Amino acid sequence: MSSRNLHALPLFQGDSRHLLTGPLQFYIRVISFLPEPLINVIDLIWPNLPGKFDAAYEVSVVDELRFFKGSKVWAVQEQNVLEGFPMDIQSFFGFPSNVTNIDAAVCEEETGKTYFFVDHMYWRYDENTQSMDPGYPRLIAEDFPGIDNKVDDVIQKEDNFYFFHQSIQYRFNLQTRRIDDSGDFNTWFNCKNIGNSLPS
Predict the structure, then answer these.
(1) DSSP-assigned states of every residue in 109-139
(2) Where are the Hemopexin repeats (predicted)?
(3) Less Cβ around it within 10 Å: N or C end of the chain?
(4) What domains can be seen in the chain, in order of their start residue?
(5) The pairing of beta strand 160-165 with beta strand 153-157
(6) Could you tell me how far CA 110 lies from the centroid of its own chain?
(7) What pLDDT was estimated at residue 38?
């Protein structure tokens, strides 16, 4: 994957693994019991989306995918862009006007809290009350010790957040509040097989 310089925007849902690759604009679904990933061109699935997204995350409680590009957010259910989108992230989430893009986002399934990472700060949004939690933004490195670099992407799997910076992924245990593993994200995502499956 590194040879193609793909920017990964991954999502998890059940036993399936979802990966968005920004510059090439593919939607890749990796399923554990299938030998090869399922690959679709984003423009074909969601022709009304602009592509080249900065971040994306899933809100399982409302069965939505949300895509970010600059200060805009799109909400999608299945193949449909929801009415009224795109919207400004300031009006939809309550970000201040100086936040003009989102680096990464993840919704913690157990709490319904969505974490938005912007530079070295993060915000926390309550999907149930549809409002920002008080006391934010906070420093990423303060609440996620060891995550000192800009967050390119983040996903949740079980009790862990996986933080991505360039080609490195860090597994952050949400119970111990510590990094307990790190490595090359190419291996973790089986990117060798994904790369071989991409259309030429």
Answers:
(1) TTTTEEEEEETTEEEEEETTTTEEPTT--EE
(2) 50-96, 99-147
(3) C
(4) 2-197 (2.110.10.10)
(5) antiparallel
(6) 17
(7) 62
